[in-house]
Amino acid sequence: MKKKKAKQKHKGFHGIGTKMVLAFMVPIAMIILLGTVCFITAKQAIIKQAKDSITDTINAKASYLSLGFENINGRSTELLSMTEMQLYYQNPKLNPDNLTEDQSKAKQAIQKRMQNMPKISDFIYHIYIFGNIGRGVTTTQAQMNLDTFDRFNETEEGKQILNSPDTFGVIGTHPYLEEINITDNKQYDCSDYALSLWRKYNFNTNVYVIIDIKQSTIDSALRDINFGKNSYTAFLVPGGKESVVAGFGDNEEDTVKKEELPGISSLTSVQDAYTSEAQNSTATITMNGDRYIFVSAKVGSTGTLLCGIVPESSLLTETNYIKYVTLILVSSSIIIAGIICVLFSRSLRKGVKDIIKPLTFAAKGDFSVSFTSKRKDEFRIISDSITDMITGVRDLLRNMEEVSDKVAISTEEVHNNTIHILSASEGIATAITEIEHGVANQANDSEQCAVQMSDLAEQIKTVYHYTDNFNKITLSTKQQVTDGIYLMDDLNSKSKATADITSTISSDIKELEKLSGTIGSIIGVINEIAAQTNLLSLNASIEAARAGEAGLGFAVVATEIRKLADESVHASERISEIIHKIQEKTNRTIQNVMKADNIVANQTDSLSHTIASFEVINNSVDQLVNNMQMVLNGMKDIEAAKETTVEAIESISAISEETASVSAEVEENANRQKDLIQSLGETVNTLSKNATNMQEKISHFKL
Question: Which end of the chain is more exposed for a tag (fewer CB within 10 A), N or C?
């Protein structure tokens, strides 16, 4: 009784119903696995695609800001290179309390140029120019004194600019310049700036140009790259100053107040981005318990960062749909599978019982039984098939007696053939072993070649990167050479104008020398007139003496005339001395002017040679640019050829590995065939013995 219960229990555990449930659970498990894999794959793909999209957007806006900052850098250079700067801020002999007319006009021209710059650039907010010479000028309402430069250098920002080895840079704030602009009139407020770009000039004098960038321009650029609700875009300046804008949905507006925005500069990923040599940086960060994707890009060479911070949850909306659909399908599949398993198992148990009962008699050797079934499904086919099988077994048993004799004869022939096949199989196995070794070596060589091609690909990418950078440097050098030629042409024109002025001065001095000689001849006439006047005075005195008392009045007149003649002679002598000194200085001036004329002529020749040299350099740079472009095109062709070669080697390696695998399998089959043939030989020996025994056992069946 216990054995029967244990048998039924064992049968129930291994029954058809249980197996059907387990069979249905396999596709359900596959569906769960498929859903999980799809969810994870979709999540990773969406996050990667989102990172690439965010990076491209951040890079585009960073390029826009970099272009704006480069334009401002050019504006600062333009201010420092003005001719008026040389008359005012770059003039070490400037007396700010006693300006010449040209110096006053130069300062006004500088200020006028500054006032026009914010009108033509959306980036420029305010401009400050001040130095250790003269008074500063600004587009604000501030009054800049003579000590503004020294007081600014005492601040932290001033020390940073003063000690910097660069001539151009960025600062986040300048509290001192804001302090001197404090006013109750909001129209003149100058504190609404995002950062400041500075440029300094230190040759004969020290001059700072500080240009503030509009906060509204930076905020507008940040809003243009809105990444959706709960996201943030930030513009960060070294030192901690940051401009942050919150993202918003398609049907929403930016309603987040600035005091509610998070601090971005303190994030570890931001510090890593500052110190990284790469242009872009990506990371996954946690803020307020939520995971965010962090993407940053460096803005040109200013050291500033443009960042995008996007919550992962906003990117995974589509993957949640996949998760929910998978859960619904799995739950439905489990329920339907359970119902189908119960119904099928009941029907199968009944059909199996109808078949098992007659088979039990057949198992005991009674092949006279028959199978009948009223079912119309596959069990009817099975029942009919078993009936046919029993009939066939009866016929088979009748024929086996006849066949057993023939088997004995055939076994001898099979034994002989087995010996020959065994010998051939051993030769095939040996040949396949050699093929397998050769194919394995070929696969290893192909794999090693693929690794070397991969290393070569990395080196090609490195060379391409450096070649591209060198091409950019060459284009920049060409622009600088062009600017140098322009400046040298301008200097050559001014040198020619100086030579013309020197020549005019020399002619005027020579004319002055001639006029001085004319004055000398006039003085000689005056001396002759004085001598004649003296002689006339002497004659008058003689005649007055002869006239006696009647000539006293005439004598007095003669005396006065003589005194006037003497004074004329003395005056003529003094004029002669002055003219002599003028002529000496005129001669020295003529010599100096001639020397200056020679120097200007030499300078003009030098400038001509310099311009010619710049032209040669410019032509060389043009050729270098063309050659670099050809090198870049060649590198691209090499890259394409590399990809094709790597694919071919990988294909060869895969084929070699597949061939090695097939060879190993064939060798294994050959060895197995050899073993089977050996076993067949043994089986043939025993087959003859079994044929005899089979005849004895057939006699026990009831047919």
Answer: N
